[in-house]
Amino acid sequence: MIPCSVFFVKSMLGQPYDSLAPAEAVKAYVNNYIENYNYDATTYRESAIDMLEMNTLIPGIDLLESEHFPEDVFYSYYESLSDSIVFNRSGVLAFQVRQSNNKGGDQHRTIRIAIT
Q: Is the pLDDT of residue 26 over 90?
């Protein structure tokens, strides 16, 4: 039988973290999230600079009406994880994990139910 802490970490954060203790798993998950954000932010900034350079090659372009208008601010990037126990009787534990994230306007929601 899988220990509850391993089952919970795997259900909440994913298989890459299930070999870690819960506190270590959270720390690793957060660090990975920050690394991914920094990578995406750098990619976005480089793309925005490339778009500005390309726009200078298009004569008479109206940037305000163009789909190529680069934004000065970095897009929204967040994630929310929550869980709740939905059943806990007779040695059976079921909990629900809710994950919601947004990367640059692409919003995703996932709901998983785990039973141990």
A: yes
Q: List CB contacts of 93: < 8 A, sequence separation 6 or more.
A: 4, 85, 87, 115, 116
Identity at 12, one-letter amino acid code:
M
Q: How far is residue 106's CA from residue 49's CA, in Å, rounded to a whole number?
A: 22
pLDDT score of 68 more than 90: no
Question: What strand order describes the sheet that includes 77-89?
Answer: 77-89, 92-103, 106-115
Cα–Cα distance for residue pair 102/50, rounded to 1 Å: 24
Which 3 state secondary structure label does DSSP give 83?
strand
d(CA 58, CA 56): 6
Question: Model-level pTM?
Answer: 0.68
Q: Taking the CA of residue 81 as centre, how many other CA atoms within 13 Å lie in the half-sphere pointing to its CB? A: 12
Please answer whether residues 11 and 116 qualify as being in contact, where contact means their C-beta atoms are separated by less than 8 angstroms: no
Q: What domains appear along the chain, each with residue ranges and CATH number?
A: 4-115 (3.30.565.40)
Rounded to 5°, the CA angle 53-59-64 comes to 75
- Asked whether the predicted pLDDT for residue 66 surpasses 60, the reply is no
